[in-house]
Every structure is written in C-alpha cells, then in structure tokens.
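Write out structure tokens for Conidiation-specific protein 13.
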Amino acid sequence: MLLTALFAFTAFNLASLALAEDPAYTTPYKHYSQVFDNIAETLNDGQWGYGLKDLPKTAYTKKQWDWGKLPRVCFETAQVHNLYCDPHEVEVYEITYEDCDNPKIFCRCVYAEASIDEVAERVGQIPVKARQYVGVFSIYSSNKDAAAWASGPEVAIFGRVEHMSIYIHEIAHHLDLYAVGGKDWFADYFPYSGLSAWRNKVAKDSCVPDEYSKKSYAEDYANALVMAAYHGMIGDIFNLQTGQRPQGCMLEQLNTAIHHTIVERQLLTYDPSARCDIHWKEFAVVCQGYLARETGRCEGLPDYDAKVAEQDPEWFQTRASFIDARKQDQFSASSSRRISSSMSKEQLESEKSMVDSANKKAGYPAQRSRGAHGRFFTA
C-alpha cells in the first residue's frame, strides 16, 4: 500500500490540538525548506540498502485474553472516540518482550489488515528504553492510506504500516512528553516541544526535516528524533545524500534531538543488554459489551460509561501509571531538574499560562485540560 499520508493521522494529545489554536504556538517557520522529500521512506530503507527497517528484532511471547473484557482505554478508542471498531470485535493480547518483564497491551480489531505478530515484531525493533514509554498499541483497519497516531498511553496503527520510521515517529511523541519534557513545577507532564526552548532552536535554523514538520513544533520535534534514531543506530545522519545537508540548515534541531536521546539518555541507541526500568500500572478493565454481559463473560466487571470516565478525578492518572513509586520519584526529580535548570519558575508560569489559555479557547473542560498535560502517571 502506498503511504501517501504517512503521518497524516498523528495526534500528539489534546494539548497539541489546543496549542495549534494559540498564536504563540503556530509555526512561523512554514517558509523553511526541507531536508527530505519523504523522510519515512528515506530513513526506513536507507540510501545504501540498510536503514531503520533493519533494526534488530526482540523476541517476545504473547498471551491472548479471554473474550468478554477489554482495557477501558481500548474500548474508548475503538468505539467512543472515532468508531474505529465494534468493541465486541476487538481482541486483546499481552506481549512480553524478553528485555522487559512488564507486558505491553495490544488491542486489535479482527478486521485490521496488520496481524498481531506483524505489529509486535516492529514494535520490538524499537529500543526498550524508548519502547517502555508506550503502554498500549491498538491496531485497526484503514479505508485510506496506512497511518498512525499517538495519544496518552497509546499508539494506534491503521492499516499495514510497514515503515519503522513511522513507529519511531509516534513513540517520539511519548518521549517528548514523558522522557524529555518530564514534570514541571506544577506537577504536570509537559512536552519539551511546547517550550520556548525548542521554538528558539527552530528559529535559529532555516530548514526542517520534511513538509509535515511544518504542521507543529511537536511534529517537527518527532521527526528530528527519527533522524536522531537513524544517527544513533544506523549511520551518520550528516552524511546522507539529501537535497540539503542537515548540518547546513537544521543543526540546532538535530543536535538537540541527538543530545536528548543519545548523549544525555540512551533512548534511541541499540544496546543488547538494556532492560526496561519503568513499568505501567494495570489498566482499568470493563465489560466488552452487551453480548459479553448477556453470555455471562463480565462477572465483576463494570460496563463502560463515558460519563463515569470523564468525571473520575483519577481517570487521567490511572489510565497509565508507574507501579514503582521509588522509581517514579527518581524519574520525576531528574525530569524536573532538566527543565528547571534551563527555565526560571516565572518562565514556566508563563508557559503554563499560554497552554491554559489555549485549552480554554479550544473549549476543553478543566479535567480534560489536566489530561492534555499528560497526567497519566501517579503524582
């Protein structure tokens, strides 16, 4: 299948949608040139036959859930958000990779073009230190081009997404929010790409990775991380024979991406001895639907109730949480130091004010606004 709109369905989170409405978060670099005509294909295949598609695979085991129950996040995505699939026709797997004892949840619509093993294999090619920041992978069919998006704890795949570049692009959004951005003074998870620090880096350059990078600062940062992944695991990104050499027009962006994910933390490098060091809390489980209820498959399980989910003050925190409080404290402290070391409290207050204003203009209620800031981890 031709991937003519490779990243067209990328949705970082509610915050990025809100920020798009705020003048402070528009992209004044739309006139910039671009390094790649097709970044996904170029970096996936490599210019000499070796690219991101050739990353080492990680062995895994899978366990399918009995029909009748679904993680609430999968029920919500399948039916409530966009009617992607009848929840009765979603199958659930726990995929446990050999480099992490904390299984990933994979939810797949039975009509999806991609098989569970096809997606699990590609996810396993992503280094565990980056892969661990996603809790759920959902797989659906596509009536157009293959695509993907990232939101909250989840990456959703539509159709047969064959380019590893796209998988890395979506996980890059999670790294932006949870690994690089981290917690700010207000105990909210905050994307690095939403900070003035990244906007200032972009302003010093004269090009971006590709045309899609002009959509938002979040998409630009995610594509810069795809380039960093190539640099960290395949070959020197500065030696790629492209129309423009990245060192000549986007050195600030690329150096920042490399520093965040290769130098400061080895998130996008291959280390066969690496193991996961953060874990996700178990997701809330609901009855798979009225047919499951009528056939006695939902004993002790609640039905999905959108109103209950929206009003639950812990909803955005319990969808995906660390179960090891000690590790959470260490992670939060290191993330806070990374942000606060470069920004004063007054600057952070100004950043938060802009985000709150954007959410208000977009019409998001207070609780959803908190969720948009990434309150998916325990405080």
